[in-house]
Structures are given as structure tokens and as C-alpha cells.
UniProtKB/TrEMBL annotation:
The keyword Transmembrane helix applies. This is CSON014443 protein. Keywords: Membrane, Mitochondrion, Repeat, Transmembrane, Transmembrane helix, Transport. Its main location: mitochondrion. One of its GO terms (molecular function) is high-affinity L-arginine transmembrane transporter activity. Belongs to the mitochondrial carrier (TC 2.A.29) family. It is found in: Mitochondrion membrane. The keyword Transport applies. GO terms for biological process: mitochondrial L-ornithine transmembrane transport. PROSITE patterns: SOLCAR. Pfam families: Mito_carr. The lineage of its organism: Eukaryota, Metazoa, Ecdysozoa, Arthropoda, Hexapoda. Solcar repeats lie at residues 2-86, 91-180. It is a multi-pass membrane protein.
Amino acid sequence: MALDFLAGCVGGCAGVLVGHPLDTVKVHLQTQDPRNPRYSGTIDCLRKIIAKESVRGLYKGLASPIGGVAFMNAIVFGVYGNVQKHYSNPESLQAHFLAGSAAGMAQSVICSPMELIKTRLQLQDSIKGLEKAKGPLDCMKQIWKKKGTKGIFKGLGITAARDLPGFASYFVTYEMMVQEKHPSSFHILMAEIVEMANEWVERYDEDVLDFGKILDQKQNNNRKWSEKHTDDIIMLLSD
């Protein structure tokens, strides 16, 4: 159990280190003004971030997800294992689905504030008018000072709506692909790749809505998110 947890932490940290630059690019593309886009695409966004902020700009906000990896793994696999073993048929796909759903719901409580802080740090040098933070703790203090607990957990609902089906599909897909007596290492690796791809396909729409839904609630008007200004993003991230 301890070895599995350690392996999960190391693997999680490695995944964050490799994927964070692409996540930074994704956040910049998702939050740009669609009427006057700053970037023409992924490569253009990557090039402009490096030109303006150097390679370090791609890793802004890294401390928040790295710091949360161990805690999130403990929650995900702890909840998943406990829910699964209390099911009448713990090896059934239904058990994996329900256990994965419970794990996704539980970890969203940690993931939501972590992603809010990460996003603010990623964008603070690119959006004028956004209050600068020295790091994750300073960023959290700024949010807490202005909005308290409500501000820290802004977007929790849509994060839970993303992670609940995301983790359910994650565990079910993996189990479906390795349910043979002696799966090879290659088979397990391919199962991991497929399950991660499947999870991100299901989660991506909700990830975009993580900004859009909150903005619509905040503005309380009938304009679509695609018609809003960068100022709306500033209001979302600085309130």
C-alpha cells in the first residue's frame, strides 16, 4: 500500500512537470478574448509566452499542483479503495465506476482551490489589472482576504461535475483493459495511456466551462461567455 502510494506520488509529480507547460498554454488560449485573440494557436501561444517570460513563464503556478499531488493521491486512492472493498462485488466494473466517482467527488474539494491559484499565477503577468502574487500562499492570502472561503472554493461545483465522471471513466477504462490474468507491461502502459486520453476528452468541456459558468453567474446577464472582455477574466481571478 505504501509502495503504491509512493509510486503514485512520484508518477504524479513527473506528470505535472511534463504537462504543466502545456497546461499553461491551454489556460492562456481558453482565457483570451475571442473577439480579439492574442494567439493564433497552440504553437503561437507557446512561442509568445517564451518570448515574453522565458521558459520560466511556462512553469508559473507549478508549486500549487506539485504540492497537491501527494494529498490528492491519498484522497483519490484512499476513497477509491474503501468504496470498492465495501461493494458486494468489488471486482465488477460497476464497483470501479462507483468508487471512481466517489474518488473524483472527494478530490475536487482539493483540486478546485489548487487550480484557481494555479490559473491566477499562470495569467498574472499576461493580464493587465490582475493583482500580482509572490507565490501560491500569497495568492491564497489575497483571495481569502477579499472573499474568504467562498472565494477559495469558487468553481467547486463545475470542478466536481468534471472530476466525478472523469475519475469514473479513468478507473473503469483501466480495469476493462487489464482484466486478464497476466497482462504484460506494454498492455498496462497502453491501458494507462488510453484511460488518460479518455478522461481528458470527457473533462475538457467542463474545464472550459470552469471559467465560463462562473463569469456568467458573476455578470448575471444574457451575454455569452464568448462575447465577454478580458476585463471579465480579471474580475473572475481578482475578486
